[in-house]
Specification:
3 helices; alpha+beta; globular; 205 residues; 11-stranded antiparallel beta sheet
Length: 205
């Protein structure tokens, strides 16, 4: 894949969090926002949305995302991208049908694990480095305090109603990939086949 086409896959699959100092206690007002966000994410068992992804070079891609907690997600890119990213609960698979490539990464090494976990814990191993308020919402920036690779993820929420509206992953080189969610809505009965992706290019004996 070229850098442009790889950027979203790398944002999902590369270890994006930082291994900086241990987490500091948040001010009560910030902790209240974090607790509210966690309660919301844990209640979001199944959901779907359109997404717009902007990579570090400013290239934009669109598609549809399906989420099924714990652990499952599917990012289906619109043509002509050919990119498909699927988490089955244990691994994240990245398929590029145009370049005929297939890669797989442990879910726990990706930023998806932060909000796809059954129990979202922002007080163990994860350092919340910043809580920011903005017109109509707020954002939470988190780093994995146990890893040595620099980087971070920022989750962005609308306030009324409370909803996840996107996230930005910044890698060790400071390159940011932004995902904006459009029309996120709760879903039910998402089929298990949405979250299975097998390597179609594996050599056959």
């Amino acid at each position: 894949m070229s850098l442009t086409r790889r950027s979203f896959a790398l944002a999902l699959a590369a270890s994006p969090f930082a291994g900086a100092a241990s987490a500091q206690a948040l001010p009560p007002a910030d902790k209240a926002l974090v607790d509210r966000a966690v309660a919301y994410l844990e209640s979001l068992t199944e959901a779907k949305a359109r997404f717009v992804q902007t990579d570090a070079r400013g290239a934009r891609s669109t598609g549809t995302v399906f989420l099924k907690r714990p652990g499952k997600a599917r990012f289906a890119y619109d043509p002509p991208s050919g990119l498909l990213v699927v988490s089955d609960g244990g691994n994240v698979a990245v398929q590029d049908s145009r370049l005929k490539t297939f890669d797989r990464y442990p879910l726990q090494t990706t930023p998806l694990s932060l909000f796809l976990a059954r129990n979202i814990r922002l007080d163990r191993g994860v350092s919340v480095s910043r809580v920011s308020r903005m017109a109509g919402g707020f954002s939470i920036t988190a780093r994995d305090a146990s890893k040595k690779t620099a980087g971070q993820i920022t989750l962005t929420f609308s306030d009324a109603p409370l909803a996840l509206i996107g996230w930005t992953v910044t890698d060790a080189q400071g390159r940011a990939t932004r995902v904006q969610l459009q029309g996120l809505q709760r879903a039910s009965g998402l089929g298990s086949d949405l979250f299975i992706l097998r390597n179609p290019y594996r050599a056959r004996a």
